[in-house]
Design goal:
135 residues; four-stranded antiparallel beta sheet; alpha+beta; 4 helices
Length: 135
C-alpha cells in the first residue's frame, strides 16, 4: 500500500504518527525514512511556497508506505487489544475501553496551509529578481 504526493499547498505541517512509514524523496532521487520526534513538527514546503520564493525553496515530495516496521507496530496494537478484550488485563474500565478502540490505521495530525486560490502567485520581493522558475 502506498500514498505519495508532491505537495501543492504553501506548506504542510505534520506531527508524530502512530505508525512508521513516512519517507521523503530528495531531488537526486534518494529516499529517506522520516521519524518525527516526540514534541516536534515536520514542515514541508509546497508548490505555492516554491512559486513565492522563485524556486529558491523547492516543494517536497513524500510518500507513506506500509513497511515491515509498520506491520510490527500493528501486530503489537492488535495483541494489546486482544489481551484487553479477552483477558481484561487492566482493572480500570475506562482504560479497557480505550485499549479496545486502539486504531489500526495510520493517523497523523497534518495541517495544509494554502494561499488564497483566487490570487495569482508570483515570486515575492528579492525572489522576483533572481527567479529560478518560469512564471
Amino acid at each position: 500500500m502506498r500514498a505519495s504526493e508532491l505537495q501543492g499547498p504553501c506548506a504542510l505541517i505534520g506531527g508524530k504518527s502512530r505508525y512508521p512509514g513516512l519517507f521523503i524523496w530528495l531531488r537526486d532521487g534518494s529516499k529517506y525514512r522520516v521519524t518525527v520526534p516526540e514534541g516536534c513538527l515536520l514542515l514541508q514546503a509546497g508548490k505555492q511556497f516554491e512559486w513565492l520564493t522563485g524556486g529558491a525553496v523547492t516543494a517536497g515530495f513524500h510518500e507513506v508506505v506500509v513497511t515491515e516496521d509498520t506491520l510490527k507496530v500493528l501486530e503489537k496494537v492488535r495483541f494489546v487489544s486482544f489481551l484487553v478484550v479477552n483477558f481484561g488485563f487492566w482493572r480500570s474500565s475506562s482504560t479497557q475501553r480505550r485499549a479496545e478502540k486502539l486504531p489500526q490505521w495510520r493517523i497523523s495530525s497534518t495541517v495544509f496551509g494554502h494561499i488564497a486560490s483566487d490570487q495569482l502567485l508570483q515570486p515575492l520581493g528579492h525572489f522576483a529578481a533572481g527567479c529560478l522558475i518560469a512564471v
